[in-house]
Design a protein that fits this description.
459 residues; mainly alpha; 5-stranded parallel beta sheet; 21 helices; globular; binds flavin-adenine dinucleotide
Length: 459
């Protein structure tokens, strides 16, 4: 019986329990199926593909040092993968595969089909709580985050996570050849892919930022969040590893949810909540509202407004700065994701599914569960979502979270000389002092748009 490891969105050697078990079973081969057309069909951003390719090359080199060969195989779609997998395994004499689960509907169907052709041992390496295990007293999925979090903490408070030790010594130092079907765009080059650099990012965050996270996390001009989402999305780091690292400095972090350092762990639990949700409600992977009562909302079909939102030309500086940050860097601050998603779904009354797809096509950290969760939260159609009548005012959000306008000035250069007092909605100022033609007029009037959204949702 020959064992191998199948990499998916778990692109790490260390802290990868499924890989360690495969290696302990004697695995010397690892597989990765590069399913570009399947991913493109799901709008995966080119910047994320670039990060994935760069990380795979890094991983291939790392594994080589331990005498493990990573085979990166070009595949078309998940539907054809089981047959391809069977052929590849036959050719290499592989009869048993270890892998980490992915929780989206297509991925689950792919694994079911593959399990019928050969032995597939699946682990839950992308989460701390295995989906389907944090449940209400009557065995159902929570529909509200706070009790989910309490139940999650009940399961894990008192536990100390640790890094499982890696079982192999270095054996050889071979080069790993980059597959010729990789695009090598280097769009993602600002995100390092080697473990030393990533560990340094994690440690710096824990040491310098974790205790201020609660205070700083909502201000896009401050680097107050971890920036680890691209790595979590590809499994370059795992949530368990991150909590283990925090526990080295704050051993009681899970026992003291009121302490500042817990606030960041809370976000990791949101990530777990959304993973639990897509498994409990597979319709979320298929574009359905979580809350069916909102199926009656008539979204507006306004391509011009959608295009202006995508390009960051709505005339609301905080929205425009955020969208331009996304288009330019492939990442957007969480507060801004909430503001622009609310603006699209409430002010423009455009279907959240269009925003969800656009985000996916641009984000380096694109992740179905968190993206869908975030969009349905903002659109009020989701599980434990923002109530429909709470509509973010993009001007007061801007005054609150970018008070001196420094974030806006970074991405909307046409406003760089506008004083802080006027920058959040600069139209009167620009008209009075010249320059009204430099910045785009507001796409909608806040009050009117708010009233229109309330009417549409009341229906
Ligand atoms: C409309 C919308 C769309 C989103 N789309 C995605 C997406 O495609 N991929 C993605 O990873 N996150 C998404 N998020 C969640 C969140 O915005 C990002 O995870 C966060 O901005 C990433 O930055 P960070 O790593 O510095 O986060 P930190 O604040 O340092 O948080 C640490 C980690 O916790 C997780 N996390 C943080 N906030 C959330 C949240 N609200 N929901 C779920 N997990 C969270 C992420 O994995 C993040 O890396 C979305 C949020 C909204 C409102």
């Amino acid at each position: 019986m020959k064992t191998a490891f199948w990499f998916r969105r778990d692109l790490r050697v260390y802290g990868n329990e499924a890989l360690i078990d495969a290696v302990n079973e004697g695995a010397q081969d690892a597989l990765f199926f590069y399913c570009k057309s399947q991913w493109l069909q799901h709008n995966v951003a080119s910047i994320q593909l670039d990060l994935l390719e760069r990380r795979l090359i890094e991983l291939g080199k790392q594994l080589n040092e331990f005498g493990i060969t990573l085979h990166i195989i070009e595949a078309d779609r998940f539907a054809t993968l089981p047959a391809l997998l069977e052929n590849v395994c036959k050719e290499k004499g592989i009869t048993r595969l270890y892998a980490n689960k992915e929780y989206e509907v297509n991925e689950i169907a792919r694994d079911d089909a593959c399990s019928q052709r050969l032995e597939l041992k699946l682990y839950d390496g992308d989460v701390i709580a295995k989906p389907g295990t944090v449940l209400t007293g009557s065995g159902e999925m929570f529909k509200v985050f706070t009790p989910f979090k309490k139940a999650w903490l009940k399961c894990f408070a008192g536990q100390h996570f640790h890094f499982p030790s890696w079982p192999l010594d270095k054996r050889k130092h071979a080069e790993f050849a980059e597959p010729d079907f990789f695009s090598a765009t280097m769009e993602s080059e600002k995100w390092p892919v080697d473990d030393n650099a990533i560990v340094a990012i994690v440690n710096r965050f824990i040491k310098d930022k974790l205790t201020d996270y609660k205070e700083d996390r909502d201000f896009p001009a401050i680097k107050g969040t971890s920036g680890l989402s691209p790595y979590l999305a590809l499994g370059v780091v795992s949530p368990k590893q991150l909590i283990a690292q925090i526990q080295l400095h704050y051993p009681e972090v899970l026992e003291n949810p009121s302490k500042a350092e817990f606030c960041w762990v809370n976000e990791i639990i949101w990530r777990e909540f959304y993973r639990h949700l897509i498994v409990a409600f597979p319709k979320l992977c298929k574009g359905f509202n979580f809350n069916e009562k909102y199926n009656a909302v008539s979204w507006r079909d306004d391509n011009q407004a959608f295009e202006r939102w995508c390009q960051g030309n709505t005339g609301y500086p905080i929205v425009d700065a955020a969208m331009r940050q996304l288009n330019k860097t492939g990442w957007m601050h969480n507060r801004l994701r909430m503001i622009v998603a609310s603006f699209l779904t409430k002010h423009l009354l455009i279907d959240w599914r269009k925003g969800e797809a656009y985000f996916m096509s641009k984000l380096i950290d694109g992740d179905l569960a968190s993206n869908n969760g975030g969009w349905q939260w903002a659109a009020s159609t989701g599980c434990d979502a923002q109530p429909y009548f709470r509509i973010f005012n993009p001007i007061t959000q801007s005054e609150k979270f970018d008070p001196d306008g420094s974030f806006i000035r970074t991405y909307v250069p046409e406003l760089k000389n506008v004083p802080a007092k006027h920058i959040h909605f600069p139209h009167d100022y620009l008209n009075a002092f010249g320059g009204g033609d430099k910045y785009v007029a507001a796409l909608v009037d806040h009050k009117e748009a708010r009233a229109r959204a309330l009417d549409a949702f009341k229906v």
